């Protein structure tokens, strides 16, 4: 790769302007003892991770090394340079929203790929792309569970769930007659489920895993206890990377999984934006908030993408809407898709297809 943008013609023109015939003549005033004769003794090349570690080590020599514990689930993660490079392309970095399918195939395909990866990661049948962050995703999941449970009014929420998420839930449910019951935490850091069976009119049991204390909850036990009293089981998270190592919520019998996806390639940016990830069982799809993009074919048999489900008040009658979430977080979902494609077990995204689709959008808009 060339790092100097000057052509030979540029160099000759600059030398002529300063009255020199060659670069050797330009630097002739520098004593021979101060010049390097031969190859520059550079160290061997480093990969991306090693280079960043080396830069951090040098930086630590100029300032005290400190550990910042503020964040509570929002931390600096490694972001591959491929993501920063791709997201800087004009085909991707746009605020255009997917209302007209004939104009937004690139946007819709990006969301479809995101849904595919998210569903695989969480072990769910379907996933949407329209939650603001982890807190709103959990609140929407609990409202969804209450709609499914119809006349039941009680929500059992673990005290080990992120306190910010619990505040959002409390704000959502405050104007309603729904009741929030806080489940205590045992000495081992896991949620105490022993009192669940005694709760009246219980609609849903919600925990976080890994929880706010970093403890891995027994999601199979949570699902078993919830289903044993005819309630739904909801699991949230603030670190989705955990499910690259742990059994995912779907495998454990959880009905709705949701949480924060900031660690999937997004900078903290002084607190936002985040990405609310959300997945559920197929039988609950029509109660799911936000948007759902599907794949189809046109009359000529060509693959296309459409907004399959949009159960929000801008699309249907307000009394039938499941949510008033208005942003599809398109750029954030695309970053997360790139992250999962870059670091996941298998890639299902064809970047050239996405780039071509977005270029077509730009041409049509122009």
From TrEMBL:
GO terms classed as biological process: nucleoside metabolic process
Residues covered by the Glycine cleavage system P-protein N-terminal domain: 1-349
InterPro entries, sorted: GcvPA, GDC-P_N
Highest taxon listed in the record's lineage: Bacteria
A Gene Ontology molecular function term of the record: glycine dehydrogenase (decarboxylating) activity
Alphabetical list of NCBIfam families matching this protein: PRK00451.1 (NF001696)
Protein name: Glycine dehydrogenase (Decarboxylating) subunit 1
């Amino acid at each position: 790769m060339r790092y100097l943008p000057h052509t030979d013609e540029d160099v000759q023109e600059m030398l002529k302007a300063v009255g020199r015939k060659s670069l050797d003549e330009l630097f002739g005033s520098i004593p021979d003892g101060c010049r390097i004769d031969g190859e520059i003794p550079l160290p061997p090349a480093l990969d991306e991770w090693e280079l960043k570690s080396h830069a951090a080590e040098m930086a630590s020599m100029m300032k005290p090394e400190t550990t910042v514990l503020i964040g509570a689930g929002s931390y600096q993660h490694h972001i591959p340079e491929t993501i920063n490079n791709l997201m800087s392309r004009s085909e991707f970095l746009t605020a255009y929203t997917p209302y007209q399918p004939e104009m937004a195939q690139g946007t819709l395909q990006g969301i479809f790929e995101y849904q595919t990866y998210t569903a695989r990661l969480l072990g769910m049948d379907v996933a949407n792309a329209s939650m603001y962050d982890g807190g709103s995703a959990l609140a929407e999941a609990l409202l969804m569970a209450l709609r499914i449970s119809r006349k039941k009014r009680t929500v059992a929420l673990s005290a080990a769930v992120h306190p910010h998420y619990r505040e959002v839930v409390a704000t959502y449910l405050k104007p309603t007659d729904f009741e929030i019951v806080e489940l205590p935490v045992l000495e081992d850091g896991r949620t105490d489920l022993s009192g669940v069976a005694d709760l009246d009119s219980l609609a849903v049991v919600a925990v976080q895993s890994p929880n706010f204390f970093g403890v891995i909850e027994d999601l199979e036990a949570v699902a078993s206890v919830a289903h044993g009293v005819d309630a739904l089981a909801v699991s949230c998270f603030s670190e989705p990377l955990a499910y690259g190592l742990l059994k995912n919520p779907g495998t454990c019998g959880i009905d709705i999984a949701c949480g924060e996806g900031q660690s999937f390639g997004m900078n903290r940016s002084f607190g936002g934006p985040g990405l609310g990830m959300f997945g559920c069982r197929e039988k609950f799809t029509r109660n799911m908030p936000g948007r759902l993009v599907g794949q189809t074919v046109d009359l000529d048999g060509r693959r296309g993408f459409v907004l399959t489900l949009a159960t929000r008040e801008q699309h249907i009658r307000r009394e039938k809407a499941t949510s008033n979430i208005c942003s599809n977080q398109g750029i954030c979902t695309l970053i997360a898709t790139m992250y999962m494609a870059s670091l996941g077990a298998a890639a299902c995204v064809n970047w050239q297809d996405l780039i071509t689709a977005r270029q077509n959008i730009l041409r049509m808009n122009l």
